[in-house]
UniProtKB/TrEMBL annotation:
<protein>
    <submittedName>
        <fullName>Uncharacterized protein</fullName>
    </submittedName>
</protein>
Length: 85
């Protein structure tokens, strides 16, 4: 009985890590990639209109943060699948 429970637990762990967590990181990577692209497009479109340097700094910081999240989630997904970086 203990062996069956241990095998079931291992199978659930493998499913959780291999499928669910991998899918989560791929989805979050795509989400932040879209956010970064929208932000870059928004800033480029307003480049001539914006005179406030504080807005430009904040937008750049947000863009870098989104880009960092994309890279982080891509790396997590690769590590879960056992791919080399």
């Amino acid at each position: 009985m203990k062996i069956a429970i241990a095998k079931l637990d291992a199978a659930l762990d493998k499913f959780w890590i291999g499928v669910v967590l991998h899918a989560y990181h791929r989805l979050m990577s795509a989400h932040y990639r879209r956010k970064a692209a929208r932000l870059a497009q928004k800033v480029q479109g307003r480049a001539n209109e914006i005179q406030n340097p504080a807005y430009q700094v904040r937008a750049k910081d947000q863009f870098l943060s989104h880009r960092h999240q994309v890279l982080r989630h891509d790396l997590e997904a690769k590590l879960i699948r056992g791919e080399t970086c």
